[in-house]
Amino acid sequence: MARATSTARTRRATLAAAVATVALLAGCAGPSSNKTIFVTVTPDATVAPADKGAVPEPTVPATWPLTGVATDEVAERPAMSVKIENSRQARPQTGLGDADVVFEEMVEGGITRFNAVFHSSVPATLGPIRSLRPMDAAISAPFGGLFVFSGGQARFVNQVAATGLTMLSHDGGDAGFYRTSDRVAPHNVYGDTETFLRAGAGEGPPEQQFRFARTAEQATALDGEPARSVAIAFPAADPSWSWDGDVWQRSETGQPATTTDGGRITAVNVVVLRVQVRDTGAHDPGGNPVPETVLTGSGSAIVLTGGHQVEATWSKSEVGSVLELTTADDAPVLLAPGNTWVELVPVSGSSVSVS
């Protein structure tokens, strides 16, 4: 308190001296002088400036974790991984175009099947829904939430269940599944997503998986070589993607790939991973060996965004780890905001051609 009183006295003394100086100068000018006397009084250095408030923190816009697209609010619902069939009898599928991320995996006989992950947009109906495969544990574990499938061999079902995902199975009698009359079994199992999501009530949104640029123009692949199409040859499937100036459009064996509810299947990002495949020792009902895509470790990749491509490396240390994409100089690959299709292409017996 003594220090504060001393400071106040000093301020009063300084002000009094300034007033006295004004009076003295005015007297020297004389009563007939027309001169204006200006006196600058320097404020006491101990006087604190007015508090203008703290600089506000910059506002970081919310984005959907699986697409990087800006949103006012992220929905408090879990991710939902759904096994979608891709045989000729299953096309066109329903709801597939709404997925945030789709993984295309090779199954027995060299055909492919989809593991489609939904979060930012969830269609009312999905299908045809089919059985899981051994690589689905490593695909879906990082997303958390729900895993929707029609059935599967107990060994592989247990592998997925061990990741902690909430399992919803048609063969297990869970609610939300039904068969349609316009297709023959086993290609006619569909699902009601509202019912599925009720099973995940209380579970929060997934963690971010890929890294996204703020704008499409800042995506890593835009610094790479131009690319207009990519053709993939699995042993018994021939998907391809073509750049139309806005998005990548999917084709199956040269024909446009479509859905019953959304038209042409498109992607903002197409990520091609070259992967090892091993024999699980299991067989499907037809006697075909069941292969497993090895989705841990690392390998080469091609990332296609905005009509350009960049070579990259993929890595995943554990089943539950997030898939990482890095460039040749070990920088993270930034995708454009939007949906992503991941092609899991075996290093042997399959090929990738970009032009």
CATH superfamily of the largest domain: YerB-like
Total domains: 2
Shape: globular
Instruction: Give the strand content.
Output: 25-35%
* Cα end-to-end separation: 80 Å
In the CATH classification, which architecture of the largest domain applies? 3-Layer(bba) Sandwich
The third-level CATH topology of the largest domain is YerB-like fold
| Count of discrete alpha- or pi-helical segments spanning 4 or more residues | 4
How would you spell out the order of helices and strands? HEEEEHEHEEEHEEEEEEEEEEEEEEEEE
What percent of the residues sit in helical stretches (DSSP H or I)?
A: 10-25%
The biggest sheet, with number of strands, parallel, antiparallel or mixed sense and barrel status, is: 12 strands, mixed
- The radius of gyration is 32 Å
> Would you count the extended β strands for me?
25
Mean pLDDT: 88
Which oligomeric form is depicted? single chain
What is the C-level CATH assignment of the largest domain?
Alpha Beta
**Helix/strand structural class:** alpha+beta
Low-confidence stretches: 1-48
Secondary structure layout:
Layout: H1 2-29, E1 80-85, E2 101-106, E3 112-118, E4 125-126, H2 136-140, E5 146-149, H3 154-161, E6 166-169, E7 177-179, E8 189-192, H4 193-199, E9 211-212, E10 225-226, E11 229-233, E12 239-243, E13 248-252, E14 255-256, E15 258-259, E16 263-264, E17 266-267, E18 269-283, E19 289-294, E20 297-305, E21 308-316, E22 324-326, E23 334-335, E24 340-346, E25 351-354
Parallel strand pairs: 1-5, 2-24, 5-6, 9-23, 18-24
Antiparallel strand pairs: 1-3, 2-3, 4-8, 7-8, 10-21, 11-12, 11-25, 12-13, 13-14, 13-17, 15-16, 18-19, 18-20, 20-21, 21-22
